[in-house]
Amino acid sequence: MTSCSGTDLEYTGEAQCGAARAGRLRVRGRELLTPAFLPVGTYGSVKGMAPHELSELGAGMLLANACHLHDRPGEHTVAELGGLHRFMGWDGALLTDSGGFQVFSMLDIAELDDQGVSFRSPLDGRKLRLGPVEAADIQLALDSDIAMVFDHCPPLPASRDLLELSVRRTTDWARRAQAHHARHNPRGQAQFAIVQGGLDDELRARSAAELIELDFPGYAVGGLSVGESRAELALAMTRYAPLLPEHKLRYVMGIGGPADLLAAIAAGFDVFDCVLPSRNGRHGTLFVPGGNIHLKNSRFRADREPIEAGCDCPACAGGWSRGVLRHLIKAGEPLGRRLCTAHNLRFLHRLVARAREAVVAQRFDAFLADERAVYTKG
Questions:
Q1: Distant-in-sequence, close-in-space partners of 18: CB < 8 Å, separation ≥ 6
Q2: 310 DSSP 8-state letter
Q3: Catalytic residue status for 273
Q4: d(C-alpha 281, C-alpha 233), whole Å
Q5: Which phi and psi (to 5°) does residue 89 adopt?
């Protein structure tokens, strides 16, 4: 169990089988069973999905991006409209990412220094400045339940010098963000730190040790899924999860394929997020046992079967066939995108729920072996 002065967060470990964990997170009166997948609502909504639908699919926490919301409509507008929960129409827990990963994705138009990053808005070309204090202030105004510190997320592969720079900056920025947050946090928002270091074990250990010394209420591993192979990703998660405190929530960022989720849970992580399931769903790429199917392929033109037999998502349980969904996707109909997104999200929420049950029942190893034999291409 963990809590932190000035925050309203508590993580309780309920069971462990091998390295896999089952737990319970309480944050500002909201509860999340772990392991858990966080759907991504970058601008304040998961594209095409109503909040009650996300809850019915199994979501207990959503992620929104503070950098994008700062750009549009602005954190003060969100605050004037009642805060991020009301803005999103979401009663569950909310986590906001600080923008470090978005900076990585805009390196061609961004200028980094030891104080933060300067870049131009992708929307209208305005010059923007983002650093650890600015990111903390944005998230305080948004009033999310969990706010991520601003970090330096390098691409992979990266030189040792760049990785060392990212670790140094990430620690310095975390220290500055934490001090500022402690002085300006009247509503008990929790703040998590992000471990960097690329695929360098020594630098990851250094980053984790420096951040743990600062005693954040939760920790994330960032800087993965940014260019490494799937084998490298799985090995990295196995090595880096044990670097984080056992009694605090462990979050690995940017993980959203079924096989990768299984690897993350097996490594000892508790929560995960990714745009993959919703983005793929909108384009007709769907999770099924055995891998993915791509509805735009002509072989599904007259397919009368559901996406996945026995699935309880709105598309499968509602009687929508692959052939009809293919037509809707190819025609650009919003209904098709929404139904396919719902299926992918439900697929992942079912997967992590089954993993939790297996951990509690002390049969996770057998569960993992069975699932890995099925979800080999997710």
A1: 266, 364, 365
A2: T
A3: yes
A4: 23
A5: 65, 35
Q: Where are the domains of the chain?
A: 9-274, 275-378
Residue 202: both structure tokens together: 């020594």
Residue 90: name the closest of 41, 139, 25 by CA.
Answer: 41
Q: Which tokens go with 165?
A: 């720079």
> Are the CB atoms for 25 and 31 separated by under 8 Å?
yes
Are 291 and 54 a contacting pair, CB within 8 Å? no
Cis peptide before 132 (omega within 30 of 0): no
Which pair of structure tokens corresponds to residue 91? 């009663």
Return the structure tokens found at 374: 């099925």
| pLDDT attached to residue 2 | 47
To which residue do tokens 């805060």 refer? 83
Task: Give Cβ neighbours of residue 377 (< 8 Å, ≥ 6 apart).
Answer: 259, 290, 291, 292
For domain 9-274, give the fold.
Answer: TIM Barrel (3.20.20)
Structure-token pair, residue 266:
């097996």
Taking only the tens place, the pLDDT of each residue in 119-178 is 877 778 788 889 999 999 999 999 999 999 999 998 888 899 999 999 999 999 999 999
Task: Copy the structure tokens of residue 254.
Answer: 């940017």
pLDDT at 1: 43
pLDDT at 172: 98
Task: Report the distance separating Cα 54 and Cα 345, nearest Å.
Answer: 8
Given the residues 151, 260, 270, 273, the one annotated as active site: 273
**Residue 110: what residue type?**
A
Distance in angstroms (rounded) separating the CA atoms of residues 67 and 71: 6
Is 161 tagged catalytic? no
Q: What is the pLDDT of residues 284-298, one digit of tens each?
A: 999 999 899 999 999
CB atoms within 10 A of CB 301: 13
Asked if 199 contacts 156 with a C-beta cutoff of 8 angstroms, the reply is yes
Q: Contact, 337 vs 16, CB < 8 A?
A: no
User: Read out DSSP for 39-89?
Assistant: EB-TTSS-TT--HHHHHHHT--EEEEEHHHHHHTT-HHHHHHTT-HHHHHT
| Ranges of residues in the chain whose predicted pLDDT is under 50 | 1-5, 377-378
- As a dihedral over the C-alpha atoms of residue 213, residue 93, residue 188, residue 256, rounded to 10 degrees, the angle is 20
Q: Which residue is catalytic, options 97, 151, 260, 270?
A: 97
pTM of the model: 0.95
Q: Residue 180 has which token pair?
A: 């500022």
